[in-house]
Each structure stands twice: as C-alpha cells, then as structure tokens.
Amino acid sequence: MSAPQSGYQVTILRYGSRSTVKSDVYLNYPVYDEADAPIEMDYFVWIVRDAERTILVDTGFSRHGGEVRGRTFLLDLPDAYRALGVDPASAPTIVLTHAHYDHTGNLDLFPGSEIVIAEDELDFWTSPVSRRAQFHHSAEDADLAVLTRARDEGRVTAFRGAERLAPGVEVVQLGGHTPGQSVVTVQTSDGVVVLASDAIHFYEEYERDMPFTYVADVPAMYRGFDTIRDWVATGGVQHVVSGHDAGTLGRFAPGTGELAAHTATIGSLT
Ligand SMILES: [Zn+2]
C-alpha cells in the first residue's frame, strides 16, 4: 500500500453486550457436531482519527433498537462520543459497514455528516425484499428512515466495490452477511488495521470458518473470510478487528481516561 506511514489512530469503543450460546450465533450449528457452549457478544463502534479528520465507522444501536432486543447498555453512546472528543457539530464523515440496527442507530446525532455506504446495501434496504422477516428482524425502520432522509438531502455517498475515504483509509465491500457488508482498512503508525465489522463477528468464526447465523449470501461470507486471510498472509493487513468478539479489546492497547474500561486503541496520533 502506498499510503504515507503516518498516523491514523483507531479507537475501538465497546458500548453494549449480550450473553448467548454458540447455536444462536453460528449458522446451522449442528453441522459441526459439537456441544453447545456459552458465548459473549460485545457491541462496538470505531473512530478513525488523525490531526486533520475524524471518521466514524458505524454508529451503534439506538436506545430503542437495543432495548427491544434486550441488549445490555454498557454506556450511553452519545455521551461516550462526547467523552472521546467527537463533536457532532464538526460533522465527521460516517461510514456504515452495513445497515443492521446495531450499526446504524444514532445517525440523527450527526445531521450534517456525510454518510458513506455501499450502493448494494442502500439498494437492498430500500427494496421490498428487505421487509421479509429474515432480514427485517435485523433492522430498525427509524434508523433506515434517517438514512433515506440523509440520502434525499444529498448527504449519502453510495460506492461500488471500494472507495478511498482519505489517504490511508479505504472502505471495501465484501458482501456475505448483508449484500453490501463492507470493511474499512486504516493505515496507522502501528500498521494497517482492518475494521472487519460483521464480515467477522467473532475470531472463532474467522479462524474456524463458521459463518454467522444471519447471512444474506453464504458463499460470499466464506469468500470474505478468504479475502481478509489473504490480506493478512500477504502483509497488507497487520491487525484484524472483529465486529462483536468479546475478546477484541484485550488484543489491543488499553484506552485511557474515563472510558478506559471500554476502549482500546491501535496506532498513535502524530
Ligand atoms: Zn453487528
């Protein structure tokens, strides 16, 4: 990659959690012929910053979206953004890796922001098939309404395939989990990070090739694992950040300040 060896810093912010079992999160779990077991699921958003810009990757679930599904709120996301120095009035660019409820809540906090999302994802969630139970289960109408309103206001950039957001920051569509599921690669002072979002919910999912239970296209999900493995094997990526693994924060440098228990960072601001 030809991006400058300069310094974005990635902040991983955990705002929610859930306790469940493997048979609930892995697609057709009986095919593995293994006993069921508990698994913890965390909910994250990601902040990419350098001296000049702030890019938010996903915006978590809304109060309503989390409550109706019985999720545990570890902190209030609007307050947490403020505590981390993210000012909605500065209209940071927002990348939506996909349009599920736990990634697109709170968009209304940022009424001036540009929103970047795969065109396939936007098209899907504005199409009739997205109303069918297997898909609609994972979305919130209120969040989708904010997204379509932003589109009508001209604030949505819908990309095809991949898009460079800034030097050293790229969003790449992999599909699989949803039609336009995307990941974000970031050049930090500590190497290239892939924010895998729900292309990889759990490290076990990726390492043992076990697709998540909610999936639009299983072959594409397997190919997404392969793509990320290839990036890692060829040295293009040094750090894989999962979308929901409860061990994620522990893999990276602990955060500081009042949200230290819920944050980790990769790279330093230069
Ligand atoms: Zn998710």
Structure in a nutshell:
The chain has helices at 22-25, 63-67, 77-83, 101-104, 119-125, 133-136, 141-152, 203-207, 218-233; strands spanning 9-21, 38-49, 54-57, 72-73, 93-95, 115-118, 156-159, 162-166, 169-173, 182-188, 191-197, 239-242, 253-254, 263-266.
What does this structure look like?
By secondary structure, the chain is of the alpha/beta class. It is built from nine helices and 14 strands. The protein has helices at 22-25, 63-67, 77-83, 101-104, 119-125, 133-136, 141-152, 203-207, 218-233; strands at residues 9-21, 38-49, 54-57, 72-73, 93-95, 115-118, 156-159, 162-166, 169-173, 182-188, 191-197, 239-242, 253-254, 263-266. Strands 1, 2, 3, 4, 5, 6, 7, 13 and 14 form a nine-stranded mixed sheet that branches. The chain has a five-stranded mixed sheet with strand order 8-9-10-11-12, with no helix packed on it. The radius of gyration is 17 Å and the shape is globular. It starts with 8 loop residues before the first strand and ends with a strand. The model has no long low-confidence stretch (mean pLDDT 96). It binds zinc ion. Zinc ion binds at residues 100, 102-103, 198, 243-244.
